Every structure is written in C-alpha cells, then in structure tokens.
Amino acid sequence: MNPDRILECMAEMHTLTRLPRIGWIMAGVPDPESVSDHCFETAIIAYMLAQQIAEPVDMGKVLAMALFHETGEVRLTDLPRRSAPYVKQFKRKAEQDASVDILGGVAESVLPLLEEMHELETLEARLVEAAEELQIIAAAMYYAKENRGDMSEYRRDAEKYDPLGIGPAAAVAEVVKRRLGEYLGEKPYWELGYSRHSVADDRAKG
Amino acid sequence: MNPDRILECMAEMHTLTRLPRIGWIMAGVPDPESVSDHCFETAIIAYMLAQQIAEPVDMGKVLAMALFHETGEVRLTDLPRRSAPYVKQFKRKAEQDASVDILGGVAESVLPLLEEMHELETLEARLVEAAEELQIIAAAMYYAKENRGDMSEYRRDAEKYDPLGIGPAAAVAEVVKRRLGEYLGEKPYWELGYSRHSVADDRAKG
Amino acid sequence: MNPDRILECMAEMHTLTRLPRIGWIMAGVPDPESVSDHCFETAIIAYMLAQQIAEPVDMGKVLAMALFHETGEVRLTDLPRRSAPYVKQFKRKAEQDASVDILGGVAESVLPLLEEMHELETLEARLVEAAEELQIIAAAMYYAKENRGDMSEYRRDAEKYDPLGIGPAAAVAEVVKRRLGEYLGEKPYWELGYSRHSVADDRAKG
Amino acid sequence: MNPDRILECMAEMHTLTRLPRIGWIMAGVPDPESVSDHCFETAIIAYMLAQQIAEPVDMGKVLAMALFHETGEVRLTDLPRRSAPYVKQFKRKAEQDASVDILGGVAESVLPLLEEMHELETLEARLVEAAEELQIIAAAMYYAKENRGDMSEYRRDAEKYDPLGIGPAAAVAEVVKRRLGEYLGEKPYWELGYSRHSVADDRAKG
Amino acid sequence: MNPDRILECMAEMHTLTRLPRIGWIMAGVPDPESVSDHCFETAIIAYMLAQQIAEPVDMGKVLAMALFHETGEVRLTDLPRRSAPYVKQFKRKAEQDASVDILGGVAESVLPLLEEMHELETLEARLVEAAEELQIIAAAMYYAKENRGDMSEYRRDAEKYDPLGIGPAAAVAEVVKRRLGEYLGEKPYWELGYSRHSVADDRAKG
Amino acid sequence: MNPDRILECMAEMHTLTRLPRIGWIMAGVPDPESVSDHCFETAIIAYMLAQQIAEPVDMGKVLAMALFHETGEVRLTDLPRRSAPYVKQFKRKAEQDASVDILGGVAESVLPLLEEMHELETLEARLVEAAEELQIIAAAMYYAKENRGDMSEYRRDAEKYDPLGIGPAAAVAEVVKRRLGEYLGEKPYWELGYSRHSVADDRAKG
C-alpha cells in the first residue's frame, strides 16, 4: 500500500475513538466509552485470560482479533441491540464489505481473523469472544458502581454469560455478576425500546 | 392507546435527544447537535418559509412531518452517508418497520405523512424537504463560523442545494453558501471514508 | 422578510440548541437536554395527546405553540425557578419584547399564538401546556432512572401536576409519578437555593 | 450563622462552578469556562497587577471583590449581553437582592465590597474591574488561539479596553489585543442577536 | 515584570481551569470540577469561616493562599492519591520548582505564603487548610446527592476530617458527614487502585 | 491469579479509558482522546506497518507492547511534557513500580516487553515506538483539520519524527507532515509553559 492509502486507513480506524458505544447512550450513560475503548479493553482482558490458561495461545492472532473486530463500525457505526429485528439479516455482510473497503491491502490478513472469530471454534476465537462479553458486563458493573446510567438491563447479560469453555473467564464473570447485583440492588428494569406492537393491538387497547 | 403505551412512545422519541447527528461526529465537531435538534430546526425553518410564500399551507402537516421524519432513528440510530453503499437497499424498509413498532397507535396518522414527505410531490412535502436540507447547510455554516470540526465537505452540499421550487429557500441558501465560503476560505477537502478500494488495487500500488 | 433577515432569524432560533435547560444544571444533571429538546418533546407529546382525544384540534396551532414557546430565551436564556422572586414582575414583558426582536416579520403570526397559550383558555393552549408540564416530569423520571442528577425536587412537580382537563395527560402523569417514585425511593430532598434569609435572622442565629 | 446555614451558603456558591459563562456559549465555544473560573482568574490577575504597581493595596478587599462579584448569578444565572435591552433597568437590583438571600450573614461584609466595586472609585475597585475586563479579552484570545468558537466579536472588547488608570493592565491589554488580532486574522464579524427590528420594517422589506 | 511575562503567567494559571480534579475522574464523576474550581471554593469557604471566628484574620493572605496553593499543578497536573507511594518523596520539591518557573516575579510574594500554608502553624494557614479539606468532603457530598460517580471512598475523608482548631469548620464538617452518609446509605466501598501486590503473592494465589 | 485479582487488574486498566491525553488538554482540544485511545491506535498502526515490511515480526509481542506501554499511567496519570524538568529523574522508576503493583501476576510477562520497548533495539520495539510517535503527529493533524485546539507546537514533532529505520513509517510521516502544514498554514506558535525564568530575571526586566 502506498503511504497515502496507509494514512487513509489509519484515519478511518481513528474514527472508532469518536464513536460512542451506542448501548450506553441508550442507557443514559453520560460521556460513555468509545468503540476503540471497547476494543482496547477486550484485547487487555483477552491477554490476561490467556496468561491464566495452560494451553498455548497465538497471542498475535488474539490481540489482532480484539483490535480489529469492530472495523465495520467505522462506516456503519455501532448499531444498538434494538435494531436487530430490522437489520440482522444483512448486517454481517455489510460489515464485511465495509471492512474490505476500509482496510484495503491490510484486509488480506485481517479478514480471515474476523472470520475465524465469527466461527468461535479455535481457542483464540473463543478467548476473544469470552473477553469481549466480559468487557461488556464489567463495564456495566463499573457504570452501576458510579451511578452512570441505568444498568438494570445488564443483569441479564451477566446472568447468561457464556465463557465458551474459558475457565478463568467464567470465574471472573461470577465476581462481576455478584458486584453488579450489589450495586443495582432492587432497581426495577423497564424493558424499553424492544416492543413490537402492532397498530391493531394499540387500537384495541385504546 | 393506554397510558403505559403512550409513555413508552414518549420515552422512545425522547431517545432522539440523546443521539448525536453522526455526520458531525465524523467531521470532528465537539458536542454536536442531536437528532431532535435537527428535527426542531427543520420544523422552525419550514414554518418560516411557509410564512414567505403565497400558497396556503397545511401547517399541522408540515410541522408533524418535520418533527417525526427521523422516528426510525430511535432504534436504528443516525447512519452516516458513508454507510450508503452497504445499507441503502434495505434502509427505508427498516426505518418504516421501526417507526411502526415505536409509534404504535400514533403510527396511523404519522406514517402517511412520512410517506407523503418521501414522495416529494405535495407543497408540504417539498417545503419540509427544502427546510431539512437548508438546516443541514446552515448548521455547517454555523460550525464553520465557530471552527467546530472540518466543514469542507459541506461546500458541495451548499453547491448542489435543491430548493424544490420553494423560492425563499433558494434565496436563503444563497446567503448560506456565501457565508460558508467566507468562513472556509481555501481550506482543502480531504475525501475520507468514501473510498471503495479493492484489495487487488492496493496490492498493485504497494 | 429578505433572505438575510430570515437567516438571522434561523440562526437565533438555533441558539436554543446550545442552551441547557437550567433547572437540570442546578440539579447536577451532566450534559442535560437543551431548550430545543424541551420544545421538540413538548410538540411530540402534544401531538400524541391530541390523537387520544375526541375533540378536533388545530394541529398547526398546537405544534407552532410548542415549537416557539421559548423564543424569548434566545436572548434571555432559561432562567431558573429560584430567580422568580427577583424577576417575575418583568419577565413576561422582557420575553415578549425579545420575541418580537428575534422573529421580525414572523412575529406577526407567532405572537398571537404565544398569547393564546398564555391565556390557557382554548383547547390547543391547554393541550400544549399540559404537554409541556408532562415533558418536565417525564424528563425528571428518565433522569431518576438513569441516576443523572438529584431529582428529589421533582416529586412535588409530579404530585401537583395539572392536566388542565386533558384526560390522557392525567393518565400518563399518573404512570410517570409512580415510576418517578420507584426510582427515587426514600431519597431525601434538600431544599436548596430558595431560602430568603434576612441578614438579621442569621445574626440572631449565629 | 449556624453550620447548616453556612453549608447552604457554600452549596449555593458552588453552583457557580456549574454555570457556563453564557457569552462563550453564544459564541459556540465547546465546554467553556464556568462563572467560578472567571472569578478565579479575575482574582489571580488582580493579584498580579497589584504586585506591579507602587501604591499600597488592600489585598483582602481586592480578592474578596473578585471572588464574590458574581454572587447574584447563583440564582439569576449569567445573562448574555444581548439581554441588556430587556433587563438592564432591573438587573442590578435583582442581583443585590439575590446576593443578600444567598449570603445571609456573610452579606454584611460582602455587599459593601460589591457596592465599592460598582462605584469604581477606590484603587481596589479599579484594580478588580480592570482585571475582570482583562480576563475576558484574554479568554477570547486563548479561545481564538485554540479555535474554540467565533471570537470575532471580542476584537471590539479588546479595542475599547479601559484600564481605569492601572498602568500594567493597559500594557498587558496591548499584548492581548495584538495576539487576538493575529489569531483572528481577516475573520469577518457577523453581528447576530443584537438587532431590534420592528415588524413593520420587515414587512416593508419582504 | 514586563507585559509579555505577565500575560504568560496569566495564561499558565488559566491552565488550571482546564485541568479536571483527578480524584473525581478516578471515581467516575462525569465532567468534574476543575482545579480552579477547587481553589475558588476553598477561598470562598475560608472567607466564610473567617467571618465566624473571633480572632482577626489577614484576609489578603488567606485568599491568596487559597488561590495559589495549586500553582505547581499548572505543569505537573493533579496527581491522584494512588500515586503517593511512587512520587511522595519528590513531589513537594517538584511543585516548588514549577511554581517559581510559572510565577516569575510574582513568586517572591506567593512562595512564602505557600510555605506558611504548608507549615500549618499560623491561624491563616490552618484556616485555608481546614477550608480546603472541607471543600473536598462537601464536593463529595454534592456528587453523592447528584449520583455523580462513586463517592463511597469519601466516607473516610469525612470521618477523619481535622478542623485544625477552627470551630465553625468542625461544625460544618459534621453536617457534611451526616448528609454524605444519608446519600450514600449502605453503598459498599471497593478499595481499588491502592493495592501493592507483589508478583510472588499473585503466583502463590493463582 | 484469583478471579478477584484479575478483575482488579481489569478495572485498573479500564482507568485508561477515563484519562485524557494531557498534551491535548494543554493545547485546548475539547474532549480529547483518552490514553486508551492512544494505545489502541498505536497498536493498529504498528500492525499496519508490520504488514508493509519484509522482515518477519512477532505480532503478539508488538501488539502487547502497544497495549500495555502506558500501564503506569493508571496510577500516575499522563504527565505533560512541561513536567519533564521536575520529574524526569524519577518518572521511569515510578512507572515501573506502579506497573508491577497494577498488573500483579500479569507483570511477569508484560514487564520484560516494556523493558524491551524502552531499549529500542529489537525490530518489534522500533516498530511500536515508530507507531507511537506516528500516532501522535497523525492525531495533531486530525485535530488541525478539525480546528480542535492549537496544534502549532506539533509542527516540530512532525519535523523531527524519527522512523527508527521503519521505511513505511517514514513515508507515512511525510504525508502527515505535509497535511499538518496545509491545515496550520501561517499559524504562529506561542511557546507557553516551558520557560524557566528566575525571579531575579523578572525583577531585572520589571
């Protein structure tokens, strides 16, 4: 790649430092973490988990997966969970196409890693995925501790956390779940933004 | 609709006050306007333009179009221009489906308005569309005046502004274009984030 | 109005997107809604309420009232409740004069609407006023849900909410009050900033 | 004063750390200085100027004037220049009344200082006033240097700066004016928000 | 000092309005007070406390101490408590050297005051120190009231508050402690960031 | 390490997402990138550069260096350049000690990497260092493009950029330098905050 193209690629990836993680915006967190923060912490957590397990791990692969796994969001931004019913059938293809356009020549080495991560079969893929989900519930726990936004929805994420066979991830998730529970206490959860009411239903009720 | 459902609808529309207009984020504007700000100003501008024209205007229709025209973004968020190649074929359907789910019984009166606005045939539809685009270039001009972000991309928006036959909109757009030009001066435009490089191209250049 | 004057008017109204609602600043809400957000939501709520009642409503009038009712704040900013003892006798006149200067030719159609809203006699006026107050207590409820600032003062606003004869407004306010109560729990209210101590009193206590 | 009353007074003065200086908001400065920042810097500058002059200065008086001179804004907030035509006849009285209510027993020592500052006769009063205005044009110069907001309006403030006989203040203001000019260059000034158009005028022009 | 040097000094002190108090950042407070806010409030509180005591106080000295006591942070920034084990032996010297470089000729009058404050022997020094610590626990109490960040660590600061013989400071601190306790309730404290684990310890535990 | 200790380590590293890069604060950038953003982008850039060179690279080592190279800042925060004269003799030792305390058992694998990076001898160390400095000048260029803060100081950083023998880094730095120059134009540089005036000097000048 020529220097202009490398810089263009750097500048696009830099966009991730500007994009807030949309789930936290929806939950009312003031000044929430960026997409790049999420990637950074996922990488850090994956590294730490890898130190705790016996099997050898390809660390270059693990960290690259963690760092590049949101590349598509450079152009598509971070879509919230509640968008799933409307976008899920085409989202993955859109992310892949965008990633190729963003990364140019670098895509040749990155895309197979993202594919591997998606398949969740190799140890490295499971490690990064377990780290990513752990990052999310840990963030919810920090925010609950600091009263930043309404974290009641994330009780469920902590509850159904799947460590994908990574022992230390399961153990840490237990501590996160306990602490999140302590910080949230009896706080009620108002399930907002997920309903799929029909016009007919509302007319009947009116 | 029952009161719980009305409140749910209010709370979802409230989300628009939390969502930053993503184009400004991409342009590096610190603390940019929200989607609700964009709708508010579009309505204000449409009202003002309507005062300047001779034909009678259905003001209830005009203002409702302006206020509700981004309803789908409650669940889909504000997608940037650069996402167009990846999402354009399904975006409108997704917005419509999301709007129905968000608005419930209120959708019965709102959706036909959004459809009318999309068709751009009635005077009211053209008025709101002309106001919306005027809001965007005026915002770019305010930001350029205040040095907030890189507005060089919006020279082109001002250049190709289409007033859709609304005379006063055309006249105001001319003033906006002139002022934007004065504030931007010779500032270069770096077209970032729109390229569609192929891996093969990059390999060839490397 | 000539195009320069229309743009000046647009630019002044745009100021409302920069002004934070001061009550939330006083309550310690980080990054609170703007005055324009308040107007936007008041309009949205008024529209929804109008859909729920049997009487015919002049929607153009309702939405214009909601959108322009804070025009004077463009130059006077949003004064907090605690300023009332010092400014109440001249505030309304100041807002009216400022509105005329801001709106220019547009004032001819807007000012009578603001006057009508102030009188609270027509259905449209009551609808907008009921929507405005509902917007405030709903915002307090969202902030309480999200732990943003100290909302204990707003229990009283919810308690004394006056729907002005708009049935669905009363019903929604009941739900808001219940939810606000749940989120606030036993939180104490410290009445700060309203005292009118005399120097003599403090000397006696000292 | 009893401890509860002292704390109430502390808590009200603390409000000044939450209030943005409204002039900077109007000029589009992102995240501008607070009223307390303005008071802090005014005090610092007054202290520095006092070190440069031969006459003896009552420093306790100077610093107290600087620190408390915006007390009334605790309840009235910082009103922008453009509000002057609408509020100037009652603003000073409102500020005085609010200051008494805020400060309670402390008002006995503070109010005479604010009165002295207002008269601009003593050396201390002139020193603080000269420092306050110097703070404003220096802030405009820092913001111009950092591209934060549109500082073109403040050229005039620098131009007409009155050092009130404080020699070093005049000398520093000259440097500020020169630097502000360098940072602003040829930037045009759009006088927005001060016009006092009559409806009749606009009708004539239309 | 020549005007350029005075302006340089002003501009450096201005930096304190940009620096967030780092302890609040660590506690997750969104948009926390600046170092200048801390100095401003310390000065205000010291002034108020001085009004409540019988002994005569040199107010110029008191306020100057409060305003300049963080001068070194202009170049060193506000180091958090948890940095103490690594920096305590050289921090004071670094602050003194930086203060001299920042203040230039003004240092001649300021440095002896900072030295006096450090010794905690004179009434003025004790008054400012008592005010400074009172500012910190009062800020924690405001933040707890407003749900901004995790204030559980500051229970201990309130508990061990030392009024240094200033009676009214002790009385106000009691009210602050009570209110802080009410706002925090049973909230657990997680002592994070202070541990000094050895690698060996962790290996043993693993 | 036990799960509580791993979570503690995660939570401390998470602090880096809250710490603003202090150089940008000093330059007046509103809402600047965090320390974690800097690490994330350094890693991304190092990865891209590694793809452009012929020699084989240990990618796990490269990415881990980039991600952990600011670990000490968790407790020491990001000290600005202007602090160098006061802290340089003890800063490195403080960072090392803090890193050990933060990372616990993970320090065993991380510290040797940070040591290797410091030595700048291996290809991996040079690659990460070249990426880190490239990240800084590229950020200055993005900020200059977006008018965020005063980037005039960074012309010098771009000028003296040392690619440490990494060819593509040198080539990209040339493009960055050119673009930075275009965006800054003739903007003057005011060297503020680095002077080391003696009191005697200022007295002479006064």
Q: How would you classify the helix and strand content of chain A by structural class?
A: mainly alpha
Quaternary structure type: homohexamer
How many DSSP helices of chain A? 11
Low-confidence spans of chain A: none
As a whole number of angstroms, the C-alpha radius of gyration of chain A is 19 Å
Largest sheet data of chain A? none
Q: Work out the strand percent of chain A.
A: under 5%
Chains forming the largest contact:
A-B, 50 and 50 residues
The N- and C-terminal alpha carbons of chain A lie at a distance of 62 Å
- The helix fraction of chain A, in percent, is 55-70%
Order of helices and strands of chain A: HHHHHHHHHHH
State the shape of chain A.
Answer: globular
The pLDDT mean of chain A sits at: 95
Strand segment tally of chain A: 0
